[in-house]
Specification:
CATH topology: Alpha-D-Glucose-1,6-Bisphosphate, Chain A, domain 4
Oligomer: single chain
Number of strands: 7
Number of helices: 5
Structural class: alpha+beta
Largest sheet: 7 strands, antiparallel
CATH superfamily: START domain
Number of domains: 1
């Protein structure tokens, strides 16, 4: 029996460097969603990085999430544990963390069917407030299943990312979420 040949997954290397926008490998699906919110980039970024009850208030994807290894706040190198509302658990690491601008993460361990998973959220100022662009890249295993699983995964993750970014947009005008963000910042 011949060993399975593994091809390099360029998006993983990009995620580790926080450069998800430059990942264009057609063998690894990328799903994305974008929205414009009426908030400055630093506020939009802060909303996206809320934790605890505030995060659960707006994020339809997360059932439970916490920082690991004694970390008190998100930062590059910090690991997080997330359990989705679908029941799947993942440990991820922040590979970039630039408040007001962007955040990137890569999966360290997670559902058996992901060979690789990474995500990046970018926030840029625009006339109406902030343009938020969220991208996820992934690859499934086993490799022979990818021709079927990648389109299904793209549909499923695409649906989730759109729901999630829509909820994020609503959170950017939710007085409870904004008050929690202001309190955390010490405003």
């Amino acid at each position: 029996m011949r060993p399975l040949r593994r091809r390099p997954l360029r998006p993983l290397a990009c995620a580790r460097r926080g450069l998800l926008d430059s990942c264009q490998d057609e063998t690894v699906p990328v799903v994305s969603a974008e929205v414009v919110v009426r908030a400055p980039p630093d506020t939009a970024f802060a909303v996206s990085q809320t934790t605890g009850e505030t995060r659960l208030r707006w994020d339809p994807f997360i059932r439970h999430q916490h920082l690991m290894d004694g970390a008190q706040q998100p930062a590059k190198g910090v690991r997080t544990f997330t359990r989705s509302r679908h029941g799947f658990a993942m440990v991820s690491r922040y590979v970039s963390y630039a408040p007001g601008s962007n955040v990137g993460m890569t999966m360290e361990s997670g559902p058996w069917f992901f060979e690789v998973f990474g995500g990046g959220w970018r926030f840029t100022a625009c006339d109406a407030g902030t343009k938020a662009v969220w991208k996820y890249n992934f690859s499934v295993r086993p490799a022979w299943l990818q021709p079927v699983a990648h389109p299904i995964g793209s549909w499923f993750l695409g649906r989730d990312i759109r729901r999630r970014i829509d909820a994020f947009a609503a959170a950017c005008s939710d007085p409870v979420v904004l008050a929690a963000v202001a309190t955390r910042r010490g405003s």
